[in-house]
Specification:
4 helices; 79% helix; elongated; mainly alpha
Length: 112
């Protein structure tokens, strides 16, 4: 049981972009524990880094395909893997955007 908890924790940590500290994410999750101006900055930085990471994977996949087509020393499985990573990261970004939009729309429907 402890092994599966460690695997889940390491999977979560691998999804966080390199520039975001885990302490900042914990501060974002607990609303009352940080100053009022810090949450939007941390959230904005997190989104910015996620989009940047998706873009870099797309560029890497494009470059790998171009290298394969140019006859450089790139294997087919590396090319397919880069393309799939780019596709999955883009799909994840779209789903996160959809959930954020749904949350915003739900909040706007709330009556005060």
């Amino acid at each position: 049981m402890a092994g599966s908890a460690t695997a889940v924790q390491s999977a979560r940590e691998s999804m966080v972009p390199a520039g975001i500290a885990p302490a900042e994410l914990k501060g974002l999750a607990s609303v009352g524990s940080t100053s009022a101006g810090q949450e939007p900055q941390v959230f904005g930085r997190l989104l910015d880094q996620l989009v940047t990471e998706v873009n870099s994977r797309q560029i890497q996949a494009r470059d790998t395909v171009n290298d394969l087509l140019a006859g450089k020393n790139v294997s087919l499985h590396q090319t397919v893997l880069a393309m799939e990573e780019a596709q999955v990261s883009f799909q994840l970004m779209v789903e996160v955007r959809n959930k954020l939009l749904e949350s915003y729309q739900e909040m706007m429907r709330m009556q005060i």
